[in-house]
Structures are given as structure tokens and as C-alpha cells.
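On clarity, I found the account of how folds are encoded harder to follow than it need be. What matters is that the chain and its backbone geometry are given together, residue for residue. For the editor and my fellow referees, an illustration may be useful. For illustration, here is how one protein appears when written out as sequence plus C-alpha cells:

___
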Amino acid sequence: MRRVLFLALLGLSACAIPRSQAPFEAGPAAAPAEIVPEPPRARERWQPGQVIADAVRVETQTYIVQAGDALSLIAERTGSAVRTIARANRLQPPYKIYPGQRLEIPGGRYHRVRRGDTGIAIALAYKTDWDEIVQANALDAPFLLRIGQRLFLPDAASPQRAETMDAPADTPEPAPSELAAFNVDIDDIITGGEPAIAEEDAPAERASALPEPAPFDGRFTWPVEGRLLSSFGAKAGGLYNDGINIAADKGAPVRAAATGTVIYAGNGVEGWGNLVLLKHDEDWVSAYAHNDAFYVQRGDRVGRGEVIAEVGQTGSVTRPQLHFELRQGRKAVDPRAHLPTG
């Protein structure tokens, strides 16, 4: 997983984005002069909450199935997890077992999910990549966590140096805390940002309770007017940018690039600042980072050109700007290839 530190520092050379390249759909007709429309109000920012890192270590052991046992009961008795035991013993749903059967119980650390826990927060609490937790527990899309569920935690990997981008040769190295913050990326937020929900509210086949977005016509528009600070793609020194960074005045409106549903609006991940993610259909997601005020919250449906936030200077940036990404599936694509050129 590529780690990208979105630093757009003062002094970077920037290309101008002509205003003609950032058209926005016209809004409703202006109100009569005597009527002053009420400005949009900032919405409450979703926070992932603090995860209590109290994982229990389970020793590797063998369990002999007793009459009346179920895999869930065995997991509870041993402190392990249903799917972890199933994978270790090559059991397939509905996980039929029989008395006298010998089951291998994998040893390791297991975290019990509490109300409000998210995959991101759990990963950060244990300094383990969320995608490794997904793989270790064979979690399936849409990666919903259940209250009381146990997650097997793979051993934390050695810290990896996050990548920076577009930093001039005389730019000082980012602080270690800034680098560590980027053990979480857009994919993690999309798949691990959902708060845990009660078991009875989440049958295995059920997807997220988010409303489906309005039909997406495949068109995107520029989310903000401004100067290009950093383009998409490879940079000098083996660095990479998964989106584009656009300089704009603090408080400038940030608009939805297309019709969609808000799947995340918060500042629970260091470095990104205030981040909004919009889901447009089963393939496309757009990301808007370093915002100031939010005008949307998770579950809101928005139209193309609707104001969703204000440009800010939050996260690991030193000037007001918007970091904008387009993702098709799990792949970041160059936004400018899908935005109007004139």
C-alpha cells in the first residue's frame, strides 16, 4: 500500500488552473433583494472515538469439540475468533463441527470490538495496517464490524517511512509524528471508517445502511477554483501523488464533483485534516482533504456543484488548499483526465 504524505509547501512552483477549467453548475435563481438567504451551517464532524487497546493474548492450543459445542461458543471459551478458528481448520460456512473433532486454536492477540470502534481507529491503536487486519480476519466487503466481535491482530510490522511529495531540496524532513500518521490511506478510510454496529442490526449479507446515491452520469466537475500546487503521479525521488493539490483562499467553497452520498466526513485521521469522501456509484469515490468547515455529514446525498465544505489549512499542510482524489474501484486515477478542460 502506497503511503503518500500530502505536503504542499509555500514556495512550490504552481501552474494556474484557468477559471474556465473549473465550471460549476448554476445554482437556483437569486433570492429577492429583501430576502437574505441563511448561510449553510457547519455540520458536526464524525470522530472515530478512542479505542481501548486491551487486546487479550491467546496461546496456541488444541480444542476437543464437546457435545453441544458451536464454533461461536468455542471462540468465546478460548478467547479466539470464529473466522480465525475456521480458517485455521479449513472450515466453511455454516461451520459444522462434531464431538471429538480436534480444532487448532491459533495463538495471538485478539481485540473485542466495542460500540463506536472503527477499523481505522483499531488499526491506529495497535499500530497495524487496517488492510492486514482485513486479510488476517477474512473480512468481506462492506467490512462492517459487530459489537462484541473479536479481531485477530497480526503482529505490527516495522514502521515504514511515509512518502513525501513535491518537497524542494531545502525543505526539512517532516516530523516523525507526521510520517507515522500516514499508516492510514484513502482505502483504509473507505473500508474501515464505519462504526461498529449491533449484531442484530447487521446480518452477514447486509451492506451499509447508507442511502444509495442518485444515478451517476459519469461526469465530474472541478471542486474548487485555484492554482495547481501538485499534479497526479510520480515525482522526483520515487515519490507519488494519488491526487492533485489546488491552492485556494481559506473559506472558498468546496463543491461536490458529482452527485453522490457522503460516506465519511471527519477529522479522525491525522495528516488528512478534515476529510470528506463521496461515493458516486459502485466504482467511483471522490476525496476532499484539508477542509475547514463541513456542511455535510455521513449519509447525506449531494448534487454536483453543491457546497460540501470550505477550503482550509488542516492536516499536514502549511497553506490553504484542497487535496482532491478520484478513485475507480481501489485505484487512484488522474482527476484531470476526468475533469472539464474548457
Summary: The radius of gyration is 23 Å. Helices lie at 71-78, 82-88, 119-126, 130-136, 176-180, 186-192. The longest helix spans residues 71-78.
